[in-house]
Amino acid sequence: MTIREIINGFRVPMDKGLPSDDSAFTYAYFYHLMKICRGVLLYDKIKDPDYNYSLNLQTLDCVQLELADTNECCEKLPTGCKWLKSKKPIPNTINNIITKVYNDRGDNYTRVVSESSKSFRRYNELGNTENNFKYLIKNNYLFVPDLNSPQWVKLQALFYDDFEVKNTCDNVCDFLDTDFPLDERLLDKMYNMMADRILKTYQYFNRDVINDTFNEDAGSPQKTNK
């Protein structure tokens, strides 16, 4: 479902009635709530070993690379190789879940983390039991070896912020009509969480009973009593 469809399908049961179209509750505000509630839901759901989170994944389609400074990455590479680094930071992921990294040459990478981390083996400790197409993420930047001279890398992950992901490669003109990365089975739970947050916030706003939103079709504001 698109962001717009999810927001339009959302109804808030309030005793005082819904705010008008031009109230403090804008599309941007609803989208902000959607991102927060999605994150809370997914952090909870991934604790369940039987939950398939694949419907919540997103892909960065165009991670561009540049030669990394030798001081930026302390992992040792096979002789003759250099580290390449993503030109932009990689958006934050939920629980560090990255499911696939591959390049324009068709090479798939597996993960190794900086030697400062003890949770993964060091690159130079992997030996010949695995191929040399490894990646690591350090200070939110992606590093891959320059094997096969890749021009770009794609990265599939359970990202935290939908908007950051969509704007990492391109500026999205109308993000409301882009798909929202949420398993639709979690939609009702997200709606309930959003409603709870709005009901707590609503008491701090003055109720707007007149809709004076500009009507693009009519070319003039509409005045409608709520």
Give a verbal description of the structure.
The protein has helices at residues 3-8, 27-45, 162-169, 187-202; strands spanning 58-67, 83-86, 93-103, 108-111, 134-138, 141-145, 152-159, 210-211, 214-215, 220-221, 224-225. It is α+β, with helices and mostly antiparallel strands and 226 residues long. A 7-stranded mixed β-barrel has the order 1-2-6-5-4-3-7. A two-stranded antiparallel ribbon has the order 8-11. A hairpin with a 4-residue loop joins strand 9 (214-215) and strand 10 (220-221). Helix 2 (27-45) crosses helix 4. The longest helix has 19 residues, at 27-45.
Summarize the model shown:
With 226 residues, the protein is α+β, with helices and mostly antiparallel strands.
Task: Offer a few descriptive terms.
24% strand, 2 domains, alpha+beta, 11 strands, 226 residues, 4 helices, elongated, single chain, two-stranded antiparallel ribbon, disordered C terminus
**Number of DSSP helical runs:** 4
Helix-strand pattern = HHEEEEEEEHHEEEE
* Sheet having the most strands: 7 strands, mixed, barrel
Number-wise, the strands total 11
Strand content: 15-25%
Query: Which regions have little confidence, pLDDT < 50, spanning 5+ residues?
Result: 115-130, 207-226
Given helix and strand content, the structural type is alpha+beta
Q: What's the shape?
A: elongated
Instruction: Name the average pLDDT.
Output: 77
